[in-house]
Amino acid sequence: MTKFRITPKGPFSLEAGTRFLEGFAPALYERSQAPGHLHLAFPVEGTWDTVGVCVRQTDKAVIGELFGDADRKTVRRQVARILSLDVDGSGFAAVGRRDPVVGRLQRSYPGLRPVLFSSPYEAAAWTIIGHRIRILQAAGIKQRIAEQLGEGVDVHRERLHAFPAPQRLASMLSFRGLFGRKVEQLHEVARAALEGRLDGDRLRSRPHEEALAELKSLPGIGDFSAELILVRGAGEADHFPHTEGRLQSAMSDAYGFDAIPPIEKLAEIAEKWRPYRSWVGVLFRTELEDQTHRISGPNE
Q1: How many CB atoms lie within 10 A of CB 36?
Q2: Disulfide check for 270: which of 25, 90, 240, 263 has CB 3.0–4.6 Å away?
Q3: How far apart are alpha carbons 207 and 21 in whole angstroms?
């Protein structure tokens, strides 16, 4: 049995993250029958071997149990990114003290950090699958791709299906529900992943505009998709997206505007959130979804 340990810096609640996943349509996550356990399955970035992980939280640390044949340190690093534990969150509470609106959100969702796609590769594939269809419809297609093309792994007697590794996705000739050029575009995403162009550390190390421009060079990836890949795939903690309509709507309501103001005004407000602008955006969107349940609408 292979285990690893991650010590969060700053507040973190695995339970809050699990609840977030349950409401995150692309994950189609069903809570493990084992209380306090989060079960994940994913291809390991780089080698693309599929593994399963059982994650639980103790008073002082997050413990991961590895199921599969992969390097422990590499899996630990990827799990840390998925749970946003690779970011020092010790200064996050200070954002709420600077901005009372954020403080209220932090009290409503204590310990919540973004839970990400397993990799920028999976995030990029999601944006292609979900283009111009409803989010829940896209989530169903993504789940069927995982079940039919991805590898299965058992985690504490629970069978999980990971999204297929890029070399497997690249061999897909067609799939029910994927129309137009989506299969071809997914092949380009898979090729980019195999060539290292979607490596999470690499994307985060680059200036935002450079990373976004490179992502948009992929067929089918526009402004909204590129920002999603950077924030929800690579785990960039401090980016204010200019294309998220739901975030703009939530901010407009929270700050008392009669109508959604220009994006420049919202970006100015978000300056107070540095260096956690992405994290605050997730709090806003989580509250909006809890209030409206609009995630079943068209993808943005």
Answers
A1: 12
A2: 240
A3: 29
Residues 231 and 119 in one domain: yes
- Secondary structure letter of residue 134 according to DSSP: B
The domain spanning residue 43 has which CATH number? 3.30.530
pTM above 0.90, yes or no: yes
Residue identified by tokens 């703009």 is 248
**Residue 259: count of CB within 10 angstroms of its CB:** 5
Identity of the residue numbered 178:
L
Among residues 73, 88, 103, the one where a domain terminates is 88
| 205 and 288 share one domain | yes
Closest by CA position to 21, among listed 51, 45, 5, 41: 41
**Do residues 170 and 69 make contact, with C-beta atoms less than 8 angstroms apart?**
no
